[in-house]
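Hello support,

Our group uses your service weekly, and this is the first time we've seen a run hang past the timeout. The protein is Eicosapentaenoate synthase subunit PfaB. I'm not sure whether the cause is the sequence or the server load. Input pasted verbatim:
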Amino acid sequence: MEQTPKASAMPLRIALILLPTPQFEVNSVDQSVLASYQTLQPELNALLNSAPTPEMLSITISDDSDANSFESQLNAATNAINNGYIVKLATATHALLMLPALKAAQMRIHPHAQLAAMQQAKSTPMSQVSGELKLGANALSLAQTNALSHALSQAKRNLTDVSVNECFENLKSEQQFTEVYSLIQQLASRTHVRKEVNQGVELGPKQAKSHYWFSEFHQNRVAAINFINGQQATSYVLTQGSGLLAAKSMLNQQRLMFILPGNSQQQITASITQLMQQLERLQVTEVNELSLECQLELLSIMYDNLVNADKLTTRDSKPAYQAVIQASSVSAAKQELSALNDALTALFAEQTNATSTNKGLIQYKTPAGSYLTLTPLGSNNDNAQAGLAFVYPGVGTVYADMLNELHQYFPALYAKLEREGDLKAMLQAEDIYHLDPKHAAQMSLGDLAIAGVGSSYLLTQLLTDEFNIKPNFALGYSMGEASMWASLGVWQNPHALISKTQTDPLFTSAISGKLTAVRQAWQLDDTAAEIQWNSFVVRSEAAPIEALLKDYPHAYLAIIQGDTCVIAGCEIQCKALLAALGKRGIAANRVTAMHTQPAMQEHQNVMDFYLQPLKAELPSEISFISAADLTAKQTVSEQALSSQVVAQSIADTFCQTLDFTALVHHAQHQGAKLFVEIGADRQNCTLIDKIVKQDGASSVQHQPCCTVPMNAKGSQDITSVIKALGQLISHQVPLSVQPFIDGLKRELTLCQLTSQQLAAHANVDSKFESNQDHLLQGEV
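Update from on-call engineer: The timeout came from a worker crash unrelated to the input. Re-ran successfully.
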């Protein structure tokens, strides 16, 4: 097949694979180097292990001469591929492997992207430009417009298929290669990189610089990249491949974590001393930098620590306690160790003084994420019921750019979610990742509900699929009950509710928007003025508010939550009630009649809306707790689950006052102790902490309780996840630390490979052969 660029040419269909280093060779005789490649990129195993090994031609891109231009070298590469070669195209810093897509498929190699078209053109009269592209002709040179038109034709694509279209002027050859390499990285990692200036608006300092590259359901991502030099332009069309970049390691030289198990204060102290001695050997510069040798040693220390801790927790005799140290540098880690060591005596003294009827939570916690508890709540040691509860937040917790970076650490999870349903719609990506950060706050009630369920669903799968965490209990705040049923394997097809939520009158007009349910309850006809509805958070007990409600019939006590309540209804009457109460309220400025008496007008509609078919196999180990009936002595069990029961519980919760305080107490009575908030931000954790604090101040006997947020607005997403997992580890929650170990394995391997190649380049023996036992082979 002719591969040279012609307007009438067939699509190129060249598989593109990013290589870990420019020194990559398919026929390397160094087995440790081959093992490194296989560990870093398992997709290369088939190629490296093939017999006979395909012949590889190496082509170097440089700026030395026009004959070495990127375009000419890429042409040479396509011709070589036609002649049976695989080609490595490289600069001093980056390398790309190219081979026919058919050959890659036959070898079961999953490419990171495919080159579908490559076209060059010079300036062309406007009359010859296709109508589809004329609209953008003022912003692009005619040469580039013409080249792109031919490239799209060659790739059998339309301009509307292209979700990223980049244009660069007067770049040198190596710069052009770097930009193409970067675009392949974005395709392979499914990352959309935002420009610093978008349509004249500069990206704010607090806005995310990138987020997941969403696509339409079952549609591949297509990108174009254009280079203009004078009157000549070259356009390339790239499509996503079936391969994904390996997950970024959650732990590295800037994100440290160590687990220190022990059965006593003395054992934990000994572990602290041992780790401190290991870190003291690392030579850190004044600017907190490590040499390559020290980086390798640090990664080895972390790797060994986690592997050993994992072995201990899988034994029958598990350690009684596990301290978790987290830090951003070696010096910070030593400070965390010293601070923990200083706190141990007081912690164990507190444990000794605790009474059998009033066992509070004994924990040590730092802002960096270090954590130790002497009252682990997530295991079933000592024949006590494990108390891990997943808590699902309600509407309104989502925020702009939430979860924007998690896909780079869990690419397989995102790929799975994308296969299962419309991930873009599930997270309401066009609103959440809008370039205007204020846009998310203006979302409709239905869209907020969808995004809330979507974020909870994603984080649930992250914990259950990636870390093998299984909750003992589940409960939801308000519409968090719907998130609970959607996320924990109860409904057959929770994605079916997305479009319904956006169009059903229940969300668009009955309890939001025009508030038709409220108008009906208040007996207002169509000529009556628009209802001015609002809700207010007020610091008050429920009883004083309830005593005043009879005087304000259009104001309602919607939610009871710890030391605050939410009143909702006619804005004028709510303000008057607050004045009579002698309290100030914080206006939510959101129109929703959930949890008020008028919502009862929609009770049957809510039931019908959530009447969804259940899966054939339902989760048997989870006790589901509903706010609908807090008088029940038992939780909703698997035997009681049915479509009718689930819909009824949601409708009852939806249409009556939500007593979140009572719900938490009910969950505690059933055995829940460790509450993990599964959703955007940490509002439920804050509320539960306040409830627990109130309980502690009362004379009522109380048992230990702890909250763990999976996400926190304003914090780095992956840092929040690591901190949460650190707490769960210390609470002895059964989980897999393998994702941490796998990531460190790749980090360690890359560091080793770099050191080996530097040593070979300098023609000296490697100083790091003693660490070769860490160079684990096989897939990660």
